[in-house]
Design a protein that fits this description.
The chain has 128 residues and is mostly helical. The chain has helices spanning 3-17, 19-29, 43-57, 61-79, 81-84, 90-97. The protein is globular and about 40 Å long. The termini are far apart. The relative contact order is 0.13.
Amino acid sequence: MKGVIFNLVEEVVRAERGDVRWDQIVDDAGVSGAYTSLGSYPDSDLVDLAETVAAHVGTDPNSVIRHVGHHGIAILVTRYPESCWPHDDVRSFLLTATRSSIPRSAGSIPARTCPSSSIASSPTRSSR
Protein backbone atom coordinates (compact mmCIF):
# COMPACT_ATOMS: atom_id res chain seq x y z
CA MET A 1 0.00 0.00 0.00
CA LYS A 2 1.34 3.43 -0.89
CA GLY A 3 2.19 5.80 1.91
CA VAL A 4 -0.10 8.50 0.51
CA ILE A 5 -3.03 6.33 1.63
CA PHE A 6 -1.65 6.12 5.16
CA ASN A 7 -1.11 9.89 5.13
CA LEU A 8 -4.80 10.34 4.29
CA VAL A 9 -5.83 8.00 7.11
CA GLU A 10 -3.68 9.96 9.54
CA GLU A 11 -4.98 13.31 8.31
CA VAL A 12 -8.63 12.27 8.64
CA VAL A 13 -8.14 10.72 12.09
CA ARG A 14 -6.17 13.71 13.40
CA ALA A 15 -8.76 16.16 12.05
CA GLU A 16 -11.68 14.29 13.60
CA ARG A 17 -10.18 12.79 16.77
CA GLY A 18 -7.06 14.83 17.54
CA ASP A 19 -3.33 14.24 17.72
CA VAL A 20 -3.41 12.37 21.03
CA ARG A 21 -6.00 9.90 19.74
CA TRP A 22 -3.98 9.30 16.54
CA ASP A 23 -0.88 8.50 18.62
CA GLN A 24 -2.94 6.14 20.78
CA ILE A 25 -4.36 4.39 17.70
CA VAL A 26 -0.88 3.92 16.22
CA ASP A 27 0.36 2.46 19.53
CA ASP A 28 -2.67 0.19 19.93
CA ALA A 29 -2.40 -1.00 16.32
CA GLY A 30 1.28 -1.83 16.76
CA VAL A 31 2.32 -0.06 13.53
CA SER A 32 5.11 2.45 13.03
CA GLY A 33 2.90 5.42 12.16
CA ALA A 34 5.75 6.97 10.17
CA TYR A 35 4.62 6.79 6.54
CA THR A 36 6.10 8.77 3.66
CA SER A 37 3.79 9.41 0.73
CA LEU A 38 6.10 7.66 -1.75
CA GLY A 39 6.91 4.67 0.44
CA SER A 40 5.27 1.27 0.20
CA TYR A 41 4.00 -0.42 3.34
CA PRO A 42 2.30 -3.71 4.22
CA ASP A 43 -1.43 -3.81 3.52
CA SER A 44 -1.75 -5.35 6.97
CA ASP A 45 -0.80 -1.98 8.51
CA LEU A 46 -3.90 -0.43 6.95
CA VAL A 47 -6.05 -3.29 8.19
CA ASP A 48 -4.57 -2.95 11.69
CA LEU A 49 -5.22 0.82 11.70
CA ALA A 50 -8.80 0.39 10.43
CA GLU A 51 -9.54 -2.27 13.05
CA THR A 52 -8.07 -0.11 15.82
CA VAL A 53 -9.94 3.03 14.74
CA ALA A 54 -13.13 0.96 14.54
CA ALA A 55 -12.63 -0.29 18.09
CA HIS A 56 -12.00 3.27 19.34
CA VAL A 57 -15.11 4.74 17.72
CA GLY A 58 -17.48 1.77 17.98
CA THR A 59 -17.92 0.79 14.35
CA ASP A 60 -16.57 -1.80 11.93
CA PRO A 61 -13.29 -1.60 9.93
CA ASN A 62 -15.10 -1.43 6.57
CA SER A 63 -16.98 1.66 7.71
CA VAL A 64 -13.69 3.24 8.72
CA ILE A 65 -12.20 2.54 5.28
CA ARG A 66 -15.26 3.98 3.53
CA HIS A 67 -15.21 7.05 5.75
CA VAL A 68 -11.52 7.70 5.16
CA GLY A 69 -12.01 7.09 1.43
CA HIS A 70 -14.86 9.59 1.27
CA HIS A 71 -12.91 12.29 3.09
CA GLY A 72 -9.60 11.29 1.53
CA ILE A 73 -10.87 11.88 -2.01
CA ALA A 74 -11.79 15.44 -1.02
CA ILE A 75 -8.28 15.95 0.35
CA LEU A 76 -6.72 14.62 -2.87
CA VAL A 77 -8.91 16.87 -5.02
CA THR A 78 -7.83 19.88 -2.98
CA ARG A 79 -4.17 18.90 -2.95
CA TYR A 80 -3.85 17.68 -6.56
CA PRO A 81 -6.57 19.43 -8.58
CA GLU A 82 -4.68 19.03 -11.86
CA SER A 83 -4.90 15.24 -11.51
CA CYS A 84 -8.58 15.28 -10.60
CA TRP A 85 -10.22 17.92 -12.79
CA PRO A 86 -10.67 15.77 -15.92
CA HIS A 87 -12.91 13.36 -13.99
CA ASP A 88 -16.64 13.69 -13.48
CA ASP A 89 -16.86 10.99 -10.82
CA VAL A 90 -14.76 9.06 -8.31
CA ARG A 91 -14.86 5.84 -10.34
CA SER A 92 -13.19 7.37 -13.39
CA PHE A 93 -10.58 8.98 -11.13
CA LEU A 94 -9.79 5.68 -9.39
CA LEU A 95 -9.47 3.87 -12.71
CA THR A 96 -6.64 6.22 -13.69
CA ALA A 97 -5.11 6.78 -10.23
CA THR A 98 -2.71 3.82 -10.45
CA ARG A 99 -1.19 5.37 -13.58
CA SER A 100 -1.30 8.87 -12.13
CA SER A 101 1.54 11.01 -10.86
CA ILE A 102 -0.40 12.12 -7.78
CA PRO A 103 2.20 11.00 -5.25
CA ARG A 104 5.14 11.91 -7.49
CA SER A 105 6.59 15.35 -7.77
CA ALA A 106 7.12 16.63 -11.32
CA GLY A 107 9.33 13.84 -12.58
CA SER A 108 11.83 14.01 -9.74
CA ILE A 109 11.10 10.39 -8.93
CA PRO A 110 11.17 7.76 -11.66
CA ALA A 111 7.85 6.18 -12.55
CA ARG A 112 7.31 2.84 -10.89
CA THR A 113 5.14 -0.04 -11.89
CA CYS A 114 1.88 0.27 -10.02
CA PRO A 115 -0.35 -2.66 -9.16
CA SER A 116 -3.29 -3.12 -11.44
CA SER A 117 -6.75 -2.74 -10.01
CA SER A 118 -10.23 -3.77 -10.92
CA ILE A 119 -13.28 -1.64 -10.25
CA ALA A 120 -16.59 -3.18 -11.17
CA SER A 121 -19.28 -1.12 -12.83
CA SER A 122 -22.41 -0.55 -10.87
CA PRO A 123 -25.83 0.51 -12.06
CA THR A 124 -26.25 4.25 -12.37
CA ARG A 125 -28.09 5.73 -9.42
CA SER A 126 -30.86 8.16 -10.08
CA SER A 127 -30.75 11.52 -8.37
CA ARG A 128 -33.46 12.21 -5.82
